[in-house]
Design a protein that fits this description.
With 299 residues, the protein is α/β, with parallel strands linked by helices. The protein has 2 domains: 168 residues, 3-Layer(aba) Sandwich (Rossmann fold); 101 residues, Alpha-Beta Complex (UDP-galactose 4-epimerase, domain 1), CATH 3.90.25.10. 34% of the residues lie in helices and 18% in strands. The strands form 4 sheets. The protein has a 7-stranded parallel sheet with strand order 3-2-1-4-5-6-11. Strands 7-10 form a two-stranded parallel sheet. Helix 1 links the parallel strand 1 and strand 2. Helix 2 runs parallel beside helix 3 and helix 4 packs across helix 6. The radius of gyration is 20 Å and the shape is globular.
């Protein structure tokens, strides 16, 4: 297939572009050229807001829109495209209000989420625009993505703490659940959508099983060959000042996804992927001052 991937330079979009290129597809990436490019893709060096007629003469079997964050992003891209066959938009679980009963299902009414704020409402507006103008588009709502090429300070933060033999500060009693989805599983699911073309067009995606904070930290330490000394933080200490995730537990119902793709990468294997990539790409991690806060606030 001839495939257009928006972005293509960091984490989810770069992995997506390289995944489909390695499968033998003819992959084009659309970005401004501010970062190094993958070697096995065609680079369209443009800002999506100044494309002109750059894409009009190109036909794509699939457009994988990994980097649109709002309605203007998806509208501008679609107005600039020529003909294409399939469109997949990576949305977010942030489109579900936190007040809904869990697990969140695709048929629930979406709306504002006080934890995610504009990020969620902007993703939802993009979904709604696609529903009106590209009704055959597939929309994926993942929880936390992780795995190879993840430059966000999530598992990388825990790996650093493990390598330095630091105790790890866990919110409350460490029982809050987190739901993850490996980037390779997301690409495999997109591949299945393009092949099978199911009637359902909106999918929650993610691991069916959640994991507690304490378990996740233990698994991250384990891939480094360490065992964490957990220290539990109570009181009114802002969680994001010392831990990489919001104080927000939620769960997605991913049964529709599992009917199409039942085998997923085990979390331990995915974290091993993350750590192998992290060891060779430490300089690409977008760090936050979590360790500084810990050093100043916890004794």
């Amino acid at each position: 297939m001839k495939i257009l991937v928006t972005g293509g330079t960091v984490f989810a979009s770069r992995y997506t572009a390289e995944y489909f290129a390695e499968k033998g597809h003819d992959v084009y990436v659309l970005n401004r050229g501010n970062r190094p490019q993958s070697s096995n893709v065609h680079h369209i060096c443009k800002d999506r807001y100044s494309l002109g007629d750059e894409l009009k003469q190109l036909f794509f079997d699939a457009v994988l829109d990994v980097t649109s964050y709002n309605v203007n992003d998806v509208r501008t891209l679609n107005e600039a495209l020529g003909e294409y066959e399939n469109y997949i938009f990576i949305s977010s679980s942030a489109v579900y209000p936190e007040t809904l009963p869990q697990p969140f299902r695709e048929d629930m009414e979406c709306g504002a989420n006080s934890i995610w704020g504009e990020y969620g409402t902007n993703k939802l507006a993009a979904e709604e625009w696609l529903g009106e103008h590209v009704p055959n588009a597939y929309i994926l709502r993942p929880p936390y993505l992780y795995g190879t090429m993840n430059n966000l300070y999530r598992e990388a933060f825990v790996f650093e703490c493990a390598e330095e033999n630091r105790p790890f500060y866990v919110p409350k009693d460490g029982s809050m659940k987190l739901q993850f989805f490996h980037i390779d599983d997301m690409c495999r699911f997109m591949e299945l959508l393009l092949s099978l073309k199911p009637e359902q067009h909106i999918f929650n995606v993610g691991n069916p099983q959640a994991v507690s904070i304490a378990e996740w930290v233990q698994k991250c330490y384990s891939v480094v060959g360490k065992k964490p000394e957990l220290r539990f933080v109570s009181g009114d200490v802002p969680q994001r000042s010392y831990f990489p995730f919001y104080d927000y537990e939620y769960m997605l119902d991913v049964s529709a996804m599992c009917r199409i793709m039942s085998e997923l990468k085990p979390l331990e294997d995915g974290l091993n992927d993350s750590y192998r990539w992290y060891r060779e790409n430490r300089g690409l991690i977008v760090r936050k001052p979590l360790l500084e806060y810990i050093s100043q606030s916890f004794k």
